[in-house]
Amino acid sequence: MGSQRLRRGYTTGTCAQAATKAAMLLLFGICKKDEMSKVCVKIPKGERLSFDIRDIKLEYKGAQRLPSAASCAVKKDSGDDPDITDGILIYSRVSRITETRQKEMIRLDGGRGIGKVTKPGLDQPVGEAAINRIPRQMIIREAETICEDTGYEGGIDIEISIPDGEELAKKTFNPRLGIKGGLSILGTSGIVEPMSEQAILDTIYLDMKVKLEGQDKGKRILIMAPGNYGLEFLKEEYGIEEDQVVKCSNFIGQSIDMAAELKCDMLLLAGHIGKLIKVAGGIMNTHSKWADGRMEILAAAALRAGFSAEGARKLLECVTVDDALLRCTKEERELLMVQIMEKMGQSLSLRSKEEIEVEAVTFSKEFGILGKTNRADEIMTAKLRGFIKS
User: Fold this and answer.
1) 368: alpha, beta or left, given left = phi > 0 and alpha = psi -120 to 50?
2) Torsion angle of alpha carbons 255, 356, 290, 10, nearest 10°?
């Protein structure tokens, strides 16, 4: 299998972070308008990226030497996997809070084209702007750093906006998820990895091949996770480093096929319940553009677990699996997970055609480990005993 290097893109969160840094530099006179062309920001994984700054606007009150507010934009670049946000301008407007406020208070909100959360179970509480946790941290950190560097002890207002966001959001899953009025500011790593299917599959195949190299016959084991949540879980729960894990993105079924082709004996899939619940319904490509069915799978599991029809119906009304599980008692969650893991195990066994043993462990941020298929612990124990040579 060949491979081709594709150009990465940047998340809406990273663009908002860069726009905020530029606006803060202008607000405090660290950089003049005619000198502002680029800023460099540090993303969550430590890499530093440079961004062009556009549409600079300054606001003054009276005879102030420094502006009372500054606004900058960064153009979103989705790399070689253009999506609906590719090419949009993401703005950040920053201003000093003039009324008496707590020292170093920084307020962040969404303006035009940024959605509002209207249903529970999402990354932010109901009523908040749809600016997810990690982008919030990165945006606020930029403002805090400049306040500290300049000795400013007052408050700052930050408003993120996307002029075309409301119209673009109608073409996304946001309205269905309960995010109304605009797009979301997203991102966990700051980078959008290109999603050319063949390129990703080639990368997964090569990664598997390298990790299996030198492993003893009969003990060829792979640990696999769809994305960053699974990688973080494996590190925190089992001490397994990222470079020991195959990152399979949404291609769970095809990754199982490739593992079997490479004569892997055992494979353990670890992932967040919000994604892996699809596997319990036989959905082996978990990207939202191919299939959803999360709530339907959950409601069916509830009926099998002995929930009333009304109880199952209430689960169908939830936006996310996390939200649904939060509404359940501990006993109900345990009953649900027994059913879900049973179906998940059946689906994985069907896909593997018994050419490879595939087990799974799933979790949530709120409850930690939620469920394991029958022999998941055996595979994990084998891994921890050093059957995989890292």
Assistant:
1) left
2) -30
How confident is the model over 170-191, as pLDDT tens digits? 988 788 678 899 999 998 888 8
User: Does residue 389 surpass a pLDDT of 50?
Assistant: no
The CA distance from 281 to 296, in Å, is 9
Angstrom distance (rounded) from CA 90 to CA 164: 9
Phi, psi of 162 (to 5 degrees): -135, 105
Distance CA 270, CA 265 (A): 17
Whole-angstrom distance, CA of residue 235 vs CA of residue 222: 15
| pLDDT, mean over the chain | 90
Closest CA to 91 of 182, 174, 175: 182
Confidence at 373, pLDDT banded by 50, 70, 90: very high
Do the Cβ atoms of 16 and 110 come closer than 8 Å?
A: no
pLDDT one-digit tens code per residue, 237-267: 999 988 889 999 999 999 999 999 999 999 9
For residue 368, give every residue at least 6 positions away whose Cβ sits within 8 Å of its Cβ, in sequence order, or none.
Answer: 237
Rounded to two decimals, the pTM is: 0.63
Rg of the chain over Cα atoms, rounded to whole angstroms, equals 23
Distance CA 250, CA 81 (A): 15
Q: Report the length, in residues, of the chain.
A: 390
Separation of alpha carbons 176 and 172, rounded Å: 8
- DSSP letter at 216 equals P
Does an H or E element contain 75, and which? strand 69-75
* DSSP at 181: S
Average pLDDT (333-353) is 96
pLDDT tier at 5 (50, 70, 90 boundaries)? low
